[in-house]
Amino acid sequence: MTNQAPTGRPRVSPAASGRPTETVLRASGLRMNYGSTEVLKGVDLTARRGEVIALLGPNGAGKTTTIEILEGFRRRSAGDVEVLGSDPEHGDEEWRSRLGVVLQSWRDHAAWRARDLLHHFGRFYAPHSRPGRVRPHDTDELLALVGLTEQAGQRVKTLSGGQRRRLDVAIGVVGRPEVLFLDEPTAGFDPKARRDFHDLVFRLADEEDTTILLTTHDLDEAEKLADRILLLAGGAIVADGSADQLAGLVARDSEVVWTADGTRHVHSTDNPARHVAELYAVHGDGITDLKITRPSLEDVYMAMVQRHERGDAESAAAHFGENR
Amino acid sequence: MNSTLNALRAGLSRGWIEFTLSFRSAQELFGYLYMPLLFLGMAIAFNSTGMADDEGHPIGAVVLSGGAAFFLVMLGVTTVLQVLANEREDGTLLRAKAVPRGLLGYTVGKSVHVAAMSVTAMALMVVPGLLFVDGFGFERWTDALILLWVCVLGMLALAPIGAIIGSFITNPRMGVTLAVLPTILIVMASGLMFPFEFMPDWVQVVGQILPVYWLGLGIRAAMLPDSYAALELAGSWQLPQVAGVLAVWALVGLVAAQWVLRRMARRESGSRVQAAREEAMKRA
């Protein structure tokens, strides 16, 4: 991790702009068993309109299961779930038209041209167009938005991995979804593709008021994209908050590194600002290469997952509940 | 705009796009058309040698009408099951499920694709057959109508069977191989390649329960001279029975397929496709 402050993305919260903070996604006591294996042991989560939420957690924690239940692709064992006012298990086609699901392409539609495929899936949304939310997206505009204008006439099988993922994203958002689900959207992206993808997510959330729930293993990405981070471990949400709030969860000091009189120093403190002020008072301009490293999301993640693995995830969650 | 009608239209154009894409892949095109061409070649070869059965009927025409029925069975059952098993595995079906009325569009698209391909292949056999194979042709214009309804009803009876089997196959390559063998056995036992009367009694009973025998009989009724009817079991073309049996299979099949396909589609999810992908990678 870098010394970058985990500030998240700068944007006006819906509350501040006067829009109602409508809850569009809610799960409570969500449980899922596969045979005798309990994958989800009571997941509670909510998301408001226009919120970007990152779901983090170790492999096998149930991230994909959670998303698939919310998408209406998987039946839960127990609990209450509501997405856009409907139970996903009984969502009708009108409800389906308001969701976007980004799927991982493999070799499906290999012979189709990229533009034809996007246009084809867009057509299904036309009857669900509303004033203020015209469906579907214009095919060529959307291709331009994901940077595939030059590949429009190319067959899907000739696209590179990153181009194919961007086409997947385009297909996922072609119906101007109100809620968008992305399961590891940037796996295998190069840095440029990743940056472009992040810009696209911001646009969707800010301009289209899309609520976005994504899973990722990339903590930097979660920090950059998400308004709120949910940490799923041991079948339950063990942490829920902004990257900053999460950083406050682990008692870990910031690290101050500086060079004075040609010697490099490292000091751990819970109050880096005061320490820096004191340094300047003592050394003045003799200080160079000053760097403050705050506890990173990775530190929080590792600490929380370890705490869970030791078996006190519940106390960890409870502890966070008090702080909130 | 009505969303059902809209999905039907999207499905129609999907079917047309897939049909045209079939002609861009030499491998796919060969898969669809080698059988029609093979039977056409055999019929023309038999015809040129003047081979005939004991009663003097040239057998080229019999081979070609049997080949046409054989092809429709392979297209309706094995191609449909193969495509369905593959497209479940590769996520095509899941994509359809993720858009509103997408499964309707997918089903319509698939039907259009298979129908257009069967028309193409039938034309490839029937048109040269009319010109070059003695005894193969329409004695009157109503025979052409018979060919039409027999083929349509036959595909409606067969495709649901393919779709149902395809819903149960988890490993496409393995499953398709296993499904082709019984299909060919049924074709053999249904009098498409050898005269039905040579079969043991119990095979004849089973054959007359299955739709394949009746499809073959219907196509012979349309394409062969009326004098050939004497060679059939009942000594006639039995067209009402052809229509009846095929219609019952179509009706039962469509109802059952709808149920099975819905059940299968409900279970599709990203992680299932991902698991199938990992399985396939291991096999590769």
From TrEMBL, chain A:
It is found in: Cell membrane. Residues 25-259 form the ABC transporter domain. GO terms for molecular function: ATP binding. It comes from the Bacteria. InterPro entries: AAA+_ATPase (IPR003593), ABC_transporter-like_ATP-bd (IPR003439), ABC_transporter-like_CS (IPR017871), ABC_transporter_ATP-binding (IPR050763), P-loop_NTPase (IPR027417). The keyword Nucleotide-binding applies. It is a peripheral membrane protein. This is ABC-2 type transport system ATP-binding protein. Residues 1-20 are annotated as: Disordered. Keywords: Antibiotic resistance, ATP-binding, Nucleotide-binding, Transport. Pfam families: ABC_tran.
Automatic annotation (TrEMBL), chain B:
Pfam families: ABC2_membrane_3 (PF12698). Its main location: membrane. The chain crosses the membrane at residues 29-47, 59-85, 112-133, 145-169, 175-195, 202-222, 242-261. The keyword Ribonucleoprotein does not apply. Residues 66-257 form the ABC-2 type transporter transmembrane domain. It is found in: Membrane. The lineage of its organism: Bacteria, Bacillati, Actinomycetota, Actinomycetes, Streptosporangiales. Coiled coil: none annotated. InterPro entries: ABC2_TM (IPR013525), Nod_factor_ABC_transporter (IPR051784). It is a multi-pass membrane protein. This is ABC-2 type transport system permease protein. Keywords: Membrane, Transmembrane, Transmembrane helix.
